Amino acid sequence: MTADLTPTPFLPEHLTHAHVLDALRHIEQNGLRLAPGTVYDLVFESRRYPPRAVAQLAYRLASQQPDIRWPLASGTPTNALLERLDFTIATKRPTLANSPQDGNVAEQEQLPVNLYPGRPAEKPAPGKPAPADAPSIAAEPTASYPTTPAPQPYSRAQALAELFISEEQLDAALAALHRRRNLLLQGPPGTGKTFLAQRLAWLELGIIDESRIERVQFHPSYSYEDFVQGFRPDATGTFRLQDGVLVDVCRRAAAVPDQPFFLLIDELNRGHVARIFGELLLLLEADKRGPAHAVRLPYSPAEAPRFFVPENLYVIGTLNTADRSLTPLDYALRRRFAFVALAPEFGPKLQAFLLDKGLPTILVEQLVTRLNALNETIADDPELGAEFRIGHSYFCQPPAGAEADVWFQLIVEQEIGPLLEEYWQEDHAKAEAELKRLLAK
């Protein structure tokens, strides 16, 4: 028999971090001008590059085939591969087309140019009113929000009275937060994830002090530029480099190193987490906190102070395990968090709470029995599972007296019923049968 001497083809998955670095060096050393990407950029050492063009060049150099075509499409396929190789992919920001500064974040920051392409409005002469059709500058409406109340003490006893989890579960969550400084609360809808996140922050602070808590909710349009740093328009329409929520809360925490600060991220896995977090994937680790591990942010000029996550900042996120539209978190992010699973709590603590609110005993017994039975059915369904169970938060604001039966019926019909229809969208009879069991007289 003769050995097969056919060379193994070089595939996209054979690319390494070093191959892409070689391509980036080749671009800079040879002064290559690549056609800009349309939606995304690869950000490296304060410069921005079109991801697919970089991947194709790396592919050609590594395979030693100068005419080979990059087989993956632009967007998610190419971006996902580059992100797996630890490169940052960010959504594009406004650029100066055909400018020699195009792609250089530091140089563009120094340009005193308004990126708005329209002509500036003429100012009326002093004492002369502006024309009726003169455009006005858009501005946020002034809102008369109530002032933040003075901080109030918050104790362990208060937390245990408000939460439906056991003291052992509370201690386990606090231990995870102390150990990793980053905690993710995951569970089915209605299990009190956001409620617990806020109480954990208050409990660690010892007071209800909103000045040391920052909240944000991720969503599909949320980006690195919103969370960390990016170019955004100010009130005059000029694009300026502005810090995001993360940099702001880190700066506040670093100024008071002896006091804890909290960043609460709701619905964390609704956003493109790896793209939103950027450098935070490294700096989040408990042993990578502080100035010794500071890094230069991609948008920042060379002389700007380096960014770090202070040791007194704690991050608590929530994840809804029942949302089928969400993609799993990547392993690089998972290993930087401790995970605490929350489950529906239709036990003695909820029953005592409902009875104390004046609900009839028979209604409380029916509610607990029927919801536990429904959750068993959901957990046993091979198409669903335990992560799709119904949480107790739906029933945490009961009315008193004679309205209780109507209150329970409306929650089942208007909130739980539509959820069951979504769960069994291809078996409407099943959803209808479970709904009837909940409402049986």
Automatic annotation (TrEMBL):
It comes from the Bacteria. InterPro entries: AAA+_ATPase (IPR003593), ATPase_dyneun-rel_AAA (IPR011704), Methyl-DNA_Rec/Restrict_Enz (IPR052934). CDD domains: AAA. Residues 115-152 are annotated as: Disordered. SMART domains: AAA. Residues 179-343 form the AAA+ ATPase domain. This is AAA family ATPase.
